[in-house]
Amino acid sequence: MGEYPSYSSFARFWLLDPAVVFLNHGSFGACPLPVLKAQQRWRERMEHQPLQFLDKDIEPLFDSALQALANFVKCDWQDLAFVANATTGVNTVLRSLRLEPGNELLTTNLEYNACRNALNYVAEREGVKVVVADVPFPVESPHQVIEAVLQQVTEQTRLVLLDHVTSQTGMVLPIAELVQQLNQRGIETLIDGAHAPGMLPLNLTELGATYYTGNCHKWLCTPKGTAFLYVQRDRQAVIRPLTISHGANSPRRDRSRFRLEFDWMGTQDLTPHLSVPTAIEFLGSLLPGGWATLMQHNRELAIAARTILCETLGASTPCPEAMIGALAVVPLPQGDALSLQRALMEQYRIEVPIVPWSDKAGRYIRISAQIYNAPAQYEYLAMALKQLLK
After folding, report:
1. 210-248 residue pLDDT tens
2. Distance CA 374, CA 380 (A)
3. Measured distance between the N- and C-terminal CA atoms of the chain, rounded to whole angstroms
4. Please, is 132 exposed, middle or buried when counting C-beta atoms within 10 Å of its C-beta (0-12, 13-18, 19+)?
5. Pairing between strand 157-163 and 354-356?
6. Are 352 and 377 in contact (CB under 8 A)?
7. Domains of the chain by start residue, with CATH
8. CA angle, corner 171, sides to 236 and 373, nearest 5?
């Protein structure tokens, strides 16, 4: 198998185990040391004087963190709220909707399982219908995705839930075009952008989605449990947090009800959210050109890694390069996904997910590309797969 591959020189900023080839940044992210240290400083300040911090200091600190995030995703900070993760964001919107008999909730067959479960739960509770657009995969062009979704739109469609980047297949969907088409039809959109912040340039104001939720702990590399929910201003009166707390009947008039409810949902560790500005600043400082260069670097690394795997295994590419961000999948011969994933870890110390699939390919391997990864790691993976799939 050759020499065990090293990470890139940027891995010195992370705590990743050097004895593991970690090619699965996409699942939970990985937080760099400068950001972890910033979080620890916030925690020490909180524990030094808990009442001062949580009762008096937290509101302006929260505002500042939201403003930094809003600058990054390009929207008004008053339209953002911190939540624990994108699944929470999706649940928050779905469980706030006022649905009527006959309404339809539209999604795709590629939607993330946790969020699809939330959709099913709300539909069953409210007595409405879930409609699933069958997006082909492998796919030849973004147009196939647009066509598959719009074909399922009816006069009863109340809301469309779409992944910005699909979790299992690592595809960037044509969200801007879909949102535009659905807006023209007067249909609300909820975009599950779990992977998008830090992987793709975002401009939520221009995008025009009714609701958008995204994780910060993945490609923004913040501490775990940091995400945001964007809600258009004219819908904020309808959207309520999953936890109803003091803000519901606060007499204050200097802040919107949306702010009062979402900014305080009971005692919890808020330091991951306060660390977001540090993560944005630090990751943006790693390469000349800032975040735009970092996103492009990771995308090019993902495409190169996919090429290495496809050429070594004689596999075809399941989607065009235009639909790749910092995730990519490659089809594998039929077989048990979990056993192969375990073999890669146990025999080669490679951490990478194998995704079971219902088509003739049977399973896909999903690779992530973050700046701490190096091309040699994907070459090592390719050789390991070649040995295991003999």
Report:
1. 999 999 999 999 999 999 999 999 999 999 999 999 989
2. 10
3. 14
4. middle
5. unpaired
6. no
7. 9-23+289-388 (3.90.1150.10), 37-282 (3.40.640.10)
8. 105
